[in-house]
Design brief:
Structural class: alpha/beta
Order of helices and strands: EEEHEEHEHHHEHEHEEHHH
Distance between the termini: 39 Å
Helix content: 40-55%
Largest sheet: 6 strands, mixed
Length: about 260
């Protein structure tokens, strides 16, 4: 479990995070949502150590990440997997070599063992047969699946995903969502997904944190959203007419019971 306690982040005279306290649960897909500029990206960067908080704590299973030495943070990051918005694959490396990259950097496996582990991860994301291709030769959805395979190569305890469905069509986005959800449960990881995708929120949101102007406005599960009375949350979630109609239909059905 990752626990955030009273987290603040200030850039000069601008306070971006304002005392956020929350938890991200093991074995669940934890989603961070909010409008552009709300602070959710800054929150994720503080969680992984790309930014240092002005004050507050980030606890990984009780270990204070903020207070760790540089060496301790390097060791801690070996327990983290990261999926970037752009997939961030190395164009000059094959699919197999991309997945092997963290193994080459951080594992003590020999070459044969690293290749075997990378192929296991590619098999998990249904990409066996694509291992010799290069990123420019595969689709955007396949690139995201390679990124997932690379992120799980070291069996991380914690998986961070920054807008994993960015640039993907709705059908491919559902495939990525389901893959992230099933891998989270299979490996009992603490998965944190930063997203604008309302399909992801309603489909795989097992623990949802809504950030509004730098503070935690709401936390709950997707099933709670339809009946929420938090106006800021509902204005954000039900921005589209279709979702508004869905919500009204569900409330009408409840009223008739």
């Amino acid at each position: 479990m990752i626990e955030v306690k009273d987290l603040y982040k200030r850039f000069e005279d601008k306070e971006v995070l304002k005392g956020i306290s929350t938890t991200f649960d093991d074995g669940k897909t934890n989603l961070i949502i909010g409008q552009s500029g709300s602070g959710k990206t800054v929150l994720m960067k503080n969680l992984v150590g790309l930014l240092e908080p002005t004050s507050g704590q980030v606890l990984y299973d009780g270990r204070d990440f903020v207070g760790m030495s540089k060496k301790e943070k390097v060791m801690m990051r070996r327990e983290m997997g990261m999926i970037f918005q752009s997939a961030a694959l190395f164009d000059s490396l094959s699919v197999l070599e991309n997945v092997m990259f963290p193994l080459d950097m951080f594992s003590s496996m020999n070459l044969r063992e690293r290749q075997k582990r990378a192929m296991e991860c590619l098999d998990r994301v249904n990409l066996v047969g694509a291992e010799e291709k290069f990123p420019g030769e595969i689709s955007g959805g396949m690139q995201k699946r390679v990124a997932i395979a690379r992120a799980i190569a070291l069996n991380p305890k914690y998986l961070f995903c920054d807008e994993p469905n960015s640039g993907l069509d709705p059908k491919t986005s559902l495939v990525i969502d389901e893959l992230l959800h099933s891998i989270t449960h299979e490996y009992n990881m603490t998965t944190i997904i930063n997203t604008h995708d309302m399909n992801s929120v309603m489909g795989i949101g097992e623990n949802i944190i809504f950030i509004y102007e730098g503070h935690k406005e709401w936390q709950g599960v997707s099933a709670d959203i339809m009946g929420s009375t938090n106006k800021r949350l509902t204005d954000f979630i039900f921005a589209s007419d279709l979702l508004k109609e869905m919500r009204q239909a569900i409330r009408h059905e409840k009223d008739e019971r």
